[in-house]
Structures are given as C-alpha cells and as structure tokens.
C-alpha cells in the first residue's frame, strides 16, 4: 500500500525537522553557537568553556519545553477534534487555558508577602487549568452522557465566563499583574529546569496514553450506532479522551501560558496529508506540534531585543503565542470558510 510508506516518510521528515529546529534553538541567542558546537556541548565535550553553561543550563530547558508543549498541544487538539466532531476544536475550548489564566491572575493579584511567589505560579496555573477542564466536563455530562454539540457550547460559555472574571480581576489589580502578560499570550521566555520537571510527568503519561487511544478515536469518528455495533462504550470513551486532552493542555499551560493555534493547526495539517485515520493523525499531530512551536519560538527569539539589564542571561523576546497568532488566524479563517461551504 502506498499510504504506509507515505506516512513513514512524513513521520521521518517531521522528526528530522523537529531535531534540526531543536539544535538551532540551542544555538540561537545573544551569543550564537554553531550546530557542531551545540552537539559537542550536549555530549559534554564543549570546545569553548562557556558553551556548556549556555547550552545545557540556559537554553536546553526552553528547547525541551518547546518539544513537550508542542507535542501536548498538538495531540490535545487532535483528540478534541475527534470528541467534539469539529475540525475547529482546539485546547482553548476545554476551559483549561482560561482556567489556568484566571488562577494566575487571582494569585498575582493577592500574592503580597508570599516567599518566592514566582516559583509557586506554575503550580497555581496547573491547578486552575485542571479545574477549568473539570468544570466543562461536569457541566457537559448529563446522566453520564456527553453530546459533542453540547460540549462545544458549554466550553464556549465557560470560557466566556472565565475570561470575563479574568478581565475584572485585572482591572482591579492594576500594577500587581505586571507579570501576567506572557501567560495571557503564551511564552517560553526565561523557562528553567524547574519548569521542565513540572511538565514532564504530564507529558510522560499523557502523550503515550493519547497515542494508545487511536482505536477509540477512530470509532468515535463513526456515527453512534456504528460505534456501538463495533463494541465501543461511547460515553466512557468520550469522557476519557476529553480528560486526556484536558490533562495534556493543562500540563502545557502550566509552563507556557495560553499558547493558541498549535492545537488547531497541527491536527488539521496532519489530517490533510494522511487522512482521518487516528493511528496516523495522532502521532503526526504531536510531531507537527513540536515543529510549529519550535519554529515559532525561533522567530520570536530572532525578533527579540537585549534587556536593559546588562547582566541578564536572557533576551527579551516576543512571546511565542504572538508569532503563532499571526499564522494561526489566517488558517482559522480558511477553515471557517470551508465549513460554511
């Protein structure tokens, strides 16, 4: 069959692109480090004394998070599009992003006197993100049943409410929320190893579980009668896949903020080249998510400026969410026009 080699070739291409972008990501910064020196530093054989510190301590956490967050968002979007039966679905519709941002805003508005509040913020965002997803799931479920249309409508309503509450808190808090903007847009700037360890359990559990759900995802794409005839318990499957998508999105939001469009673009790109088979769409969505996020973050870094503090180890760059919005918004318009037709 032609499809199998095509899928293998596409997977190899996407994996190679992700690896190349990963190495470039480690080289780009205030000090440019060529790819050969980056690889030597990763192998603990640096040719320059500063390469080891710059690559492994300052840049590697951000690059690893780019891989993990991109994979989690891409896979989460693919699962949600199956559960909601809507190609426009993406992780922001789960209530996870808005729940996490509201938690961050509430925390930053009242964090006076707390020791090391910056270290607590990712955990607060994670708790809020999971709570937002649970609220959507509980409001959608009626007698243990989930209707895809009801799920979409409920998610939109919950997001609107949480977004309004966030705006109210921000207006009242004023200057106390100076650090919230990167979380609202989505950013990988200044991420450290602690952020990697926070996201790692969610990626290590959520990504394999999401990939193993391909059979259930394929059956959910059929009409309900066909799914039941093939032995799939529809409602538990929908709840499980939605829960997986929410967990993946929550893990991503906890370290990067509300990065939009990766969960929309990656599954649609995967489906365009390999068809609707979830056994191929799910892994390819995760790989494309990596590529999209790393590429967008490279663009964000290249447009960055040096901070006013000379001793700072980081550059002040564009949030990666802003770069993704530039490319994601036109795709959303195209998909909307196609769905209307």
Q: Would you write up a description of this structure?
A:
The protein is 74% helix and 0% strand. The chain is mainly α. It has one domain (3-340): Orthogonal Bundle (ABC transporter involved in vitamin B12 uptake, BtuC). The model is unreliable at 307-314 (pLDDT under 50).
Amino- and carboxy-terminal Cα gap: 32 Å
CATH fold descriptor: ABC transporter involved in vitamin B12 uptake, BtuC
Architecture (CATH level 2) name: Orthogonal Bundle
Q: List the domain count as a whole number.
A: 1
* Silhouette: globular
Approximate strand percentage: under 5%
Major sheet attributes: none
> What is the CATH homologous superfamily assignment?
ABC transporter involved in vitamin B12 uptake, BtuC
Q: How many beta-strand segments?
A: 0
Gyration radius, in Å: 20 Å
Low-confidence stretches: 307-314
Mean pLDDT: 82
Order of helices and strands: HHHHHHHHHHHHHH
The computed structural class is: mainly alpha
For this structure, what is the CATH class?
Answer: Mainly Alpha
Q: What is the overall number of helices?
A: 14
